[in-house]
Write a structure and sequence with these properties.
This protein is an alpha+beta fold and 341 residues long. It has a single domain (2-249), classed as Sandwich (Jelly Rolls). The protein is built from four helices and 14 strands. The strands form two sheets. The protein has a seven-stranded antiparallel β-sheet with strand order 1-4-13-6-7-8-9, with no helix packed on it. It starts with a helix and ends with a helix. Residues 4-23 and 246-271 have low confidence and may be disordered.
């Protein structure tokens, strides 16, 4: 009987909850100070990163890194958040890594399989899946998916489309942003050291406030693996919460309406471009026409000025001379002629 129990022990261990570490998390700029670990997760010496799985175990391994302080999505002001983390996934026998939002008592129920979620039916997850699981309809071993209460992803995006491989052992950087006013969640991914991508790898409409209402929840990073020579590791993680004013918050939106609004805004941007061209063309025409009018005004002004100067010049009035011709009779006195002789 004892020998039988020893043989069954590796199979039974994943069924038991994992302990939560009571060790304080070290203060480091790469991690938020308000963190804790559960399951097989452990701090690597000297605390510069966290191993979520334990490669020394012969059975399956799972671990969780989570925020100590629970929070609510609904309250006086709806909650939005932005989080980013860097991680690496070993080449073999790793399920990958998942950003999860779970009830606050979840760490005590962490299981040994499926990102530690095999016994949980109330969760929201963004999975970076590095292993094909036909039971949940995985299409490949290199995708990011949205999970709500089930590991059957509601929406997936192929990471090969951005020329990355999850299970390469290379350090990757992800950003996940949720806006409570638009009910939109966006996921971005790139190689560590690269710039944050402008376009999201995956976008999904979800109302987390409607899903969790006023319940207190935790946010965490979880992973699970089989017998692996390397651990799934997290090198940095930060979470920034944002509160949206109540007057900006709307009750569950129609995803198609949001999509139509984005399409309409895009069309407005495109339709405004011809208006800008027409405005510039009109401005150029107005400047040219104004210059032409000014030139014509100066030209006619010069002509009128020259005519006026000509009118001012004194005029010489010439009248024809009057001459009178008279006949002159010359009388020669005979005495005078004789005297000369």
């Amino acid at each position: 009987m004892p020998r039988l129990l020893l043989l069954l022990l590796p199979l039974l261990l994943p069924l038991f909850p994992h302990p939560i570490s009571s060790n304080p998390f070290p203060i480091t700029p790469r991690f938020d100070p308000n963190l804790n670990i559960a399951g097989d997760a452990k701090l690597a010496t000297p605390g510069s990163f966290v191993h979520l799985t334990d490669p020394s175990k012969s059975s399956r391994s799972s671990g969780l890194l989570f925020q100590r302080a629970p929070f609510k999505f609904l309250g006086p002001k709806p909650r939005s958040f932005s989080t980013d983390f860097t991680f690496s996934i070993p080449p073999r026998n790793s399920d990958g890594i998942a950003l999860i939002i779970v009830p606050k008592d979840f760490p005590s129920r962490l299981s040994g399989e499926s990102f530690g979620l095999s016994r949980e039916n109330r969760f929201f997850g963004v999975e970076f899946d590095a292993m094909v699981n036909e039971n949940v309809g995985d299409e490949n071993d290199n995708h990011v998916g949205i999970d709500v209460g089930s590991l059957v992803s509601l929406k997936i995006s192929n990471i090969s489309s951005i020329k990355l491989k999850l299970s390469s052992g290379v350090k990757l950087h992800s950003w996940v942003d949720y806006d409570s006013s638009s009910k939109r969640l966006e996921v971005r991914l790139c190689k560590f050291g690269g710039a944050r991508p402008f376009d999201p790898l995956l976008a999904y409409q979800v109302d987390l406030g409607e899903m969790w209402k006023g319940e207190e929840v935790l946010m965490g990073l979880s992973s699970s693996s089989g017998a692996s020579l390397e651990a799934t590791s997290v090198y940095s993680w930060s979470v920034r919460a944002r509160r949206v004013p109540t007057w900006l918050h709307s009750q569950p939106v129609d995803p198609f309406k949001v999509s139509n609004e984005h399409t309409r805004e895009h069309k407005m941007v495109i339709s405004n471009r011809p208006c800008l061209v027409a405005l510039l063309s009109g401005l150029i025409f107005a400047v040219g026409f104004g210059a032409l009018v000014a030139f014509a005004a100066l030209f006619f002004r010069a002509i009128f000025a020259s005519e006026k100067e000509a009118e001012i010049q004194p005029k010489c009035i010439l009248y024809p001379g009057e001459f009178r011709y008279e006949k002159v009779n010359v009388v020669v006195d005979d005495n005078t002629v004789n005297a000369k002789n």
